[in-house]
Amino acid sequence: MPTVILFVVVSIILMIGGSSVRGVLNAILGWVSSEMGWGYMWIYVINFAFFVFLIVTKYGGIKLGDKDEKPAYGNFQWGAMVFATAIDASILMLSMVDPLRYIQDPPFGAKPYSEEAYGLAHMLGQYNWGPMAWMMFAAPTIAIGYILYVKKIKVQSLSDAIIMLDGDKPWQSILKTVVNILVVLGIMGGVGASVGLEIPIISKVLSSLTGIPDNLLLKMVLFAILFVIFTFTVFKGLKGGIDKLSNMHIWTALIFLAIVLAIGPTVYILNSETNSIGLLIQKFIPLSTNTIPNGTPDTTQQETIFYWGWWLSYMPFMGLFIARISRGRTIRQIVLGMLTYGALGCMSFYAILGGYSLWLQRTGTLNLIHILNTQGQSAVIAAVLSTLPLKFIMFALYCISCFIFLATTISSSAYVLSSFTSLPLARGEQPSRANRMTWVVIFIIFSFSLVMVGGFETIQTFCTLAGFPLMFVVPFIIYSIWKMLRNDESIKTMKVKRSEWREVKRQNRINRKKITVERRNAVDGDLILSPDDQNHDSNQK
After folding, report:
1. What is the DSSP string of 300-317?
2. 446 or 99: whose pLDDT is higher?
3. Do 421 and 3 form a contact (C-beta atoms < 8 A)?
4. Distance between CA atoms of 266 and 340, rounded to whole angstroms?
5. What is the value of pTM for the model shown?
6. HEC string for 336-404
7. By its UniProt entry, which Pfam families does this protein fall under (predicted)?
8. CA-based, 20 to 30 A from 35: which of 14, 300, 441, 491?
């Protein structure tokens, strides 16, 4: 209840404050980017290195469940739910716009609007939505999944997965409460900001398609439609609601991307993506440690910090959600599944939609950079879509995809938040519908307040700050995972078997030495014989 009241109060302040609040938030974003960028970078590097280590070692084979247990969901259904829950409509929008920002202010000393700048612009979005980002979801997923399905202990919130908080001491209770509050703030800030970003863009696109004025009334209608969709899926719960929506999410996205790739500059997009893969490998380490200590943070660094904060804000609810659908899978399967369905899926959007935007700009078909700088990203997206054949069909497909993306993410977020804030639930019990609906309403109110404030920088600030406190929680989760996996029964059994095998080898070496002797009468130096040969030699004498 206190968190609900807090977000209602924040929403009212945002609605009343308007542009003055936006100025304060922009200043905060600048400070975080310049002074705390190193913290975001390090936590992502450490997390990435840890899970690469897990999947290439014996620990990757540990199953979250019983030894012979099969996965609860098939691979495609599992991947669809993972991707659809984590990725909202923002990727349909930002994948068209982000490359245009990078062309104007490219990293690594590249000249703006140069060939090198175009190559880097196509790659940078794929870095921010790629393996490094998706690996951040692995920490809470593995920690929660291991406790749920291996230790058979109920987990209701992220703090339950931090083993040093497992106790009744006052300091443990206090820290658990702090972690749970940070989780709620992170989810609300990150997901709420997503809706605040996406509704104005959908409104602009619909206005371009139908001629309806792009005003507050249209945005309120869109919020009402979202509320109806959220209500239905949240009432249905995980099975029959969110899972079905996830399937629709994947298929509409695949159809939209396939059409753009087929009717767009296919060869240019494929050439650009081939080049981007090479650049991503080449620049991966420099981008992962890009703090610019001796200058002003550039667009690339600011965008990465913004995305790192955004991914962190999604981290707690994605961990609980993916863990709940991952029973019967090994750690290696889960992490590689995130990279396959998640990272490659996101990179596909930037490869195709980002490549198409860059092609339009480079060939002079549209001056998208001028549109971005003068009219904003909503106008850019509407302009890009207007260049596609069958414009009305593509506009409609795009808007439907955006709605399904949004509905899947918000419904899953409300489901998980209601779990975090419920009284203790029995095994298999879902949070009450009243609790779930409360969070749907809070999401709508908070998101609407962000729309009233307006400005992409406002959204960036909320996303960055929402993930900031959670940056300090991740090391404790990683430590908990390491401690649990080292004491896993299958790992202990493996160690015992290896110890027995080494002992057998040692005894064999000792026995070989015992059953050999040196022949003193060897003509050409020492000769090693078995005891039987030595006795045979004595008998001959």
Report:
1. HHHHHHHHHHHHHHHHHH
2. 99
3. yes
4. 23
5. 0.81
6. HHHHHHHHHHHHHHHHHHHHHHHHHHHCCCCCHHHHHHHHCHHHHHHHHHHCCCCHHHHHHHHHHHHHH
7. BCCT
8. 14
